[in-house]
Amino acid sequence: MDAAFGSELDGRLYTFLADLNEQRLVTPPERFYIRTRASQILPAQDHWTVPVDGLVAGRLELRIGELQRKARPLGLHLMECAGNTRAAHFGMISVGEWAGFPLSEILLEAKPKPSATQILISGFDRYVGSSVTSTPGASWIFKLDDLLRSNAFLATQLDSKPLSGDHGAPLRLVVPGWYGCCCIKWVDHVSLVDDSPESTSQMLEYAARTHQTGSPALAKDFLPARIDHAAMPIRVEKWLIGERIRYRVVGLLWGGSQPVKTLAIRFNPEEDYVPVDSLPAAQTAPWTIWSHAWSPAARGTYIIRLAIKEPELRARRLESGYYARSVEIIEV
Fold this sequence. Notes:
Structural class: mainly beta
CATH class of the largest domain: Alpha Beta
Number of strands: 17
Order of helices and strands: EEHEEHEEHEEEEHEEEEEEHE
Strand order of the largest sheet: 2-1-10-5-6
Shape: elongated
CATH topology of the largest domain: Sulfite Oxidase, Chain A, domain 2
Number of domains: 2
Largest sheet: 5 strands, mixed
């Protein structure tokens, strides 16, 4: 945890989440999760340029120096890998404070033609070594309206520091509220297209993990890869209060676009869900800390599972038990 390992497409860094609290919600850049590390043949960044072409009235050539000078703070945003797993302690999720340049302003200058319904954003994705876990080809085709509604931007900084190579330097796409597979690193090409392009290799690799219906052959048939409402425990605290042992479960709530009114918790399948004790009503941060006092009845292993009780809020992974965690209690 918290240390990068492996290289290129097989490089990873899993963020340790158990020490998060209300005063420390932002992930330092050196601990921000990594799904793919920089290529050993990544070109020099000093003169990096990004063409904006395709179905546009005026072709642009974005220069990294100018984008870095124009970069401005764009807020706190959460990023989660669509392949976040229990085996990695769900450590492929982080929150950073980003700076960069809104994509909407670039498109305003490029002037997309009426036939431009989608936008292809590609990143440098060639490597020295072959991968046993991933498919090369970092690119995603978005419906133009979806991407503009998301307030997507091209990032040059993470937590007031220039992006590192492993985080996509010199330029990374950030799509707030969408899975990290859409947040293309090492952006080197932007192209406006119509509805005819086929899905990219990256889209097909992540089709199941972004809740697509099958593996659509055409990009236009892909659903937005937005992060559903989700929640999980990150630690169980043991307290001694008045010579009696007491436990408290602390966890995270994130995803979706609306506040959650009732987050419920249960310990093992035979128990009923009960509302968590402490859930902030105003969930304005990219993720929210919640807590719940717990008195286990006996020693043993418990499976902790969360549920959102508003049926109108989509929480597909949560409902499937994806974020369930287990804990062994040895003292009561």
